[in-house]
Amino acid sequence: MLQPFSAKRSRAGKSLPALAAQAGIAKSTLSKFEASNGNPNVETLWALAAALDVPLSLLFEAEAPATKLIRAGEGEPMETEQTDFSAVLLSRCPLKMRRDVYRVVMPPGEIRRAQPHPRGTIEHMVVCAGEMRAGPDGQEELLVAGDYYTYPGDHPHSYQAPQPDTMFMMVMEAP
Protein backbone atom coordinates (compact mmCIF):
# COMPACT_ATOMS: atom_id res chain seq x y z
CA MET A 1 0.00 0.00 0.00
CA LEU A 2 1.36 3.39 -0.97
CA GLN A 3 2.37 5.91 1.64
CA PRO A 4 0.94 9.42 1.24
CA PHE A 5 3.21 11.48 -1.01
CA SER A 6 2.48 14.78 0.76
CA ALA A 7 4.61 13.91 3.81
CA LYS A 8 7.54 12.80 1.64
CA ARG A 9 7.12 15.87 -0.55
CA SER A 10 7.15 18.13 2.53
CA ARG A 11 10.27 16.43 3.92
CA ALA A 12 11.96 16.98 0.56
CA GLY A 13 10.97 20.67 0.73
CA LYS A 14 9.14 20.58 -2.61
CA SER A 15 5.84 22.15 -3.55
CA LEU A 16 3.21 20.07 -5.32
CA PRO A 17 3.78 21.90 -8.65
CA ALA A 18 7.58 21.57 -8.33
CA LEU A 19 7.46 17.82 -7.60
CA ALA A 20 4.95 17.21 -10.41
CA ALA A 21 7.15 19.10 -12.87
CA GLN A 22 10.32 17.30 -11.75
CA ALA A 23 8.60 13.90 -12.02
CA GLY A 24 7.04 14.80 -15.38
CA ILE A 25 3.44 14.24 -14.27
CA ALA A 26 0.41 16.50 -14.12
CA LYS A 27 -0.24 18.45 -10.90
CA SER A 28 -3.79 17.05 -10.84
CA THR A 29 -2.41 13.50 -11.02
CA LEU A 30 -0.02 14.10 -8.11
CA SER A 31 -2.84 15.75 -6.15
CA LYS A 32 -4.95 12.58 -6.62
CA PHE A 33 -2.08 10.39 -5.42
CA GLU A 34 -1.61 12.59 -2.35
CA ALA A 35 -5.32 12.17 -1.59
CA SER A 36 -4.85 8.36 -1.88
CA ASN A 37 -6.87 8.29 -5.10
CA GLY A 38 -5.61 6.82 -8.33
CA ASN A 39 -3.39 3.89 -9.12
CA PRO A 40 0.07 4.96 -10.33
CA ASN A 41 2.00 2.66 -12.65
CA VAL A 42 5.65 1.68 -12.12
CA GLU A 43 6.99 4.40 -14.40
CA THR A 44 5.13 7.08 -12.44
CA LEU A 45 6.31 5.66 -9.12
CA TRP A 46 9.92 5.54 -10.34
CA ALA A 47 9.65 9.15 -11.53
CA LEU A 48 8.26 10.29 -8.17
CA ALA A 49 10.89 8.35 -6.23
CA ALA A 50 13.66 9.86 -8.39
CA ALA A 51 12.23 13.37 -7.96
CA LEU A 52 12.05 12.85 -4.18
CA ASP A 53 15.55 11.27 -4.20
CA VAL A 54 14.35 8.17 -2.32
CA PRO A 55 14.29 4.45 -3.16
CA LEU A 56 11.05 3.28 -4.78
CA SER A 57 10.29 1.03 -1.81
CA LEU A 58 10.07 4.04 0.53
CA LEU A 59 6.86 5.05 -1.25
CA PHE A 60 5.21 2.02 0.37
CA GLU A 61 4.11 1.47 3.96
CA ALA A 62 7.03 1.31 6.35
CA GLU A 63 5.34 -0.48 9.25
CA ALA A 64 5.52 -4.23 8.90
CA PRO A 65 4.37 -7.04 11.18
CA ALA A 66 6.97 -9.31 12.81
CA THR A 67 6.04 -12.10 10.40
CA LYS A 68 4.72 -11.78 6.87
CA LEU A 69 3.70 -14.51 4.46
CA ILE A 70 3.09 -13.79 0.78
CA ARG A 71 1.94 -16.81 -1.18
CA ALA A 72 2.88 -17.32 -4.82
CA GLY A 73 0.54 -15.23 -6.92
CA GLU A 74 -0.28 -12.88 -4.02
CA GLY A 75 0.98 -9.39 -3.29
CA GLU A 76 0.34 -6.00 -4.79
CA PRO A 77 1.85 -6.06 -8.29
CA MET A 78 3.53 -3.02 -9.78
CA GLU A 79 2.93 -3.16 -13.51
CA THR A 80 4.42 -1.25 -16.37
CA GLU A 81 2.83 0.12 -19.50
CA GLN A 82 6.05 -0.15 -21.52
CA THR A 83 6.84 -3.88 -21.28
CA ASP A 84 5.33 -7.17 -20.15
CA PHE A 85 6.74 -6.80 -16.65
CA SER A 86 5.20 -7.21 -13.22
CA ALA A 87 6.96 -7.09 -9.86
CA VAL A 88 5.80 -7.52 -6.29
CA LEU A 89 7.80 -5.72 -3.61
CA LEU A 90 8.31 -8.37 -0.95
CA SER A 91 10.45 -6.38 1.46
CA ARG A 92 12.38 -3.16 1.66
CA CYS A 93 15.68 -2.93 3.50
CA PRO A 94 15.53 -0.58 6.48
CA LEU A 95 18.23 2.05 6.79
CA LYS A 96 21.47 1.03 8.53
CA MET A 97 20.83 -2.68 8.00
CA ARG A 98 22.89 -5.17 6.07
CA ARG A 99 21.68 -8.15 4.11
CA ASP A 100 23.36 -11.41 3.22
CA VAL A 101 21.73 -13.43 0.43
CA TYR A 102 21.97 -17.23 0.24
CA ARG A 103 20.76 -19.85 -2.21
CA VAL A 104 20.04 -23.01 -0.21
CA VAL A 105 19.44 -26.54 -1.48
CA MET A 106 18.07 -28.76 1.25
CA PRO A 107 17.56 -32.51 1.13
CA PRO A 108 14.42 -33.97 2.65
CA GLY A 109 14.55 -35.32 6.13
CA GLU A 110 15.16 -34.12 9.61
CA ILE A 111 14.20 -30.74 10.94
CA ARG A 112 17.13 -28.32 11.12
CA ARG A 113 16.72 -26.33 14.32
CA ALA A 114 18.42 -22.93 14.29
CA GLN A 115 19.48 -21.03 17.37
CA PRO A 116 18.58 -17.35 17.56
CA HIS A 117 20.79 -15.08 15.49
CA PRO A 118 21.97 -11.71 16.88
CA ARG A 119 19.27 -9.38 18.19
CA GLY A 120 17.35 -7.61 15.43
CA THR A 121 18.04 -10.25 12.76
CA ILE A 122 15.20 -10.81 10.29
CA GLU A 123 15.06 -13.76 7.89
CA HIS A 124 13.43 -13.56 4.46
CA MET A 125 12.76 -16.76 2.52
CA VAL A 126 11.51 -17.32 -1.04
CA VAL A 127 10.97 -20.94 -2.05
CA CYS A 128 12.22 -21.53 -5.60
CA ALA A 129 11.52 -25.28 -5.95
CA GLY A 130 9.98 -27.97 -3.78
CA GLU A 131 8.39 -27.35 -0.40
CA MET A 132 9.68 -25.99 2.91
CA ARG A 133 8.32 -25.98 6.42
CA ALA A 134 10.02 -23.06 8.14
CA GLY A 135 9.65 -20.28 10.65
CA PRO A 136 9.87 -19.39 14.31
CA ASP A 137 8.99 -22.10 16.80
CA GLY A 138 5.20 -22.30 16.92
CA GLN A 139 4.78 -20.23 13.75
CA GLU A 140 6.16 -22.64 11.15
CA GLU A 141 4.49 -22.44 7.74
CA LEU A 142 4.39 -24.91 4.85
CA LEU A 143 5.73 -23.01 1.84
CA VAL A 144 5.65 -23.95 -1.84
CA ALA A 145 7.52 -22.55 -4.85
CA GLY A 146 6.94 -18.81 -5.14
CA ASP A 147 5.94 -18.26 -1.49
CA TYR A 148 7.70 -15.55 0.54
CA TYR A 149 7.93 -15.67 4.33
CA THR A 150 9.72 -13.29 6.68
CA TYR A 151 10.11 -13.69 10.42
CA PRO A 152 12.34 -12.72 13.33
CA GLY A 153 15.59 -14.66 13.11
CA ASP A 154 16.53 -13.68 16.65
CA HIS A 155 14.17 -16.33 18.05
CA PRO A 156 14.53 -20.12 17.82
CA HIS A 157 13.36 -21.29 14.39
CA SER A 158 13.56 -24.29 12.10
CA TYR A 159 13.69 -25.50 8.50
CA GLN A 160 12.54 -28.77 6.97
CA ALA A 161 12.28 -29.95 3.38
CA PRO A 162 9.45 -32.50 3.05
CA GLN A 163 10.49 -33.43 -0.50
CA PRO A 164 13.71 -33.78 -2.51
CA ASP A 165 15.27 -31.01 -4.61
CA THR A 166 14.01 -28.19 -2.40
CA MET A 167 15.72 -24.89 -3.10
CA PHE A 168 15.10 -21.50 -1.51
CA MET A 169 16.63 -18.06 -1.33
CA MET A 170 17.42 -16.89 2.19
CA VAL A 171 18.16 -13.28 3.04
CA MET A 172 19.55 -12.56 6.48
CA GLU A 173 18.99 -8.94 7.49
CA ALA A 174 20.84 -7.64 10.54
CA PRO A 175 21.68 -4.30 12.12
Automatic annotation (TrEMBL):
<dbReference type="InterPro" id="IPR011051">
    <property type="entry name" value="RmlC_Cupin_sf"/>
</dbReference>
<dbReference type="InterPro" id="IPR050807">
    <property type="entry name" value="TransReg_Diox_bact_type"/>
</dbReference>
<dbReference type="GO" id="GO:0003700">
    <property type="term" value="F:DNA-binding transcription factor activity"/>
</dbReference>
<dbReference type="InterPro" id="IPR014710">
    <property type="entry name" value="RmlC-like_jellyroll"/>
</dbReference>
<keyword id="KW-0238">DNA-binding</keyword>
<dbReference type="InterPro" id="IPR001387">
    <property type="entry name" value="Cro/C1-type_HTH"/>
</dbReference>
<dbReference type="InterPro" id="IPR010982">
    <property type="entry name" value="Lambda_DNA-bd_dom_sf"/>
</dbReference>
<dbReference type="GO" id="GO:0005829">
    <property type="term" value="C:cytosol"/>
</dbReference>
<dbReference type="Pfam" id="PF01381">
    <property type="entry name" value="HTH_3"/>
</dbReference>
<feature type="domain" description="HTH cro/C1-type">
    <location>
        <begin position="9"/>
        <end position="59"/>
    </location>
</feature>
<dbReference type="GO" id="GO:0003677">
    <property type="term" value="F:DNA binding"/>
</dbReference>
<dbReference type="Pfam" id="PF07883">
    <property type="entry name" value="Cupin_2"/>
</dbReference>
<dbReference type="InterPro" id="IPR013096">
    <property type="entry name" value="Cupin_2"/>
</dbReference>
<protein>
    <submittedName>
        <fullName>DNA-binding protein</fullName>
    </submittedName>
</protein>
